[in-house]
Amino acid sequence: MTRTTTLKLSDELRARIASAAQQRGKTAHAFMVEALELQTDLAERRSAFVADALLAREEVARDGLVLDADEVFDYLKARADGRPARKPTSKSDLLAI
Question: Could you write out the DSSP letters of every residue in 5-69?
C-alpha cells in the first residue's frame, strides 16, 4: 500500500531536485522516492554495522581473542603472493580498546 506524504522543500531544493531528476530521465517524484530508499537502506546498514561492532567488542572483552591487524594483513598478503606465512596468534594484551 502507498500513502501520500507532503514534504516542504525550499524553492532552491525543488529546483535542484527537478534538474537532477531530469538529467537522469526521471520525474522529481521518482527521484525523491529513490533518494529516500537509498538513504533508508544506508541508515539501516549503518545501524546493523554498529550493532555488529558492539557485539564484536563484547565478544573480545568476554573471550579476549584478538589478532594484531598488521600481522593479519602480512599473513594474507604473503598467502596471496604464494609465500609461506606463519598464522597470526591471538593477543590478550590488545584488549585496551
Answer: ------HHHHHHHHHHHHHTT--HHHHHHHHHHHHHHHHHHHHHHHHHHHHHHHHHHHH--B--H
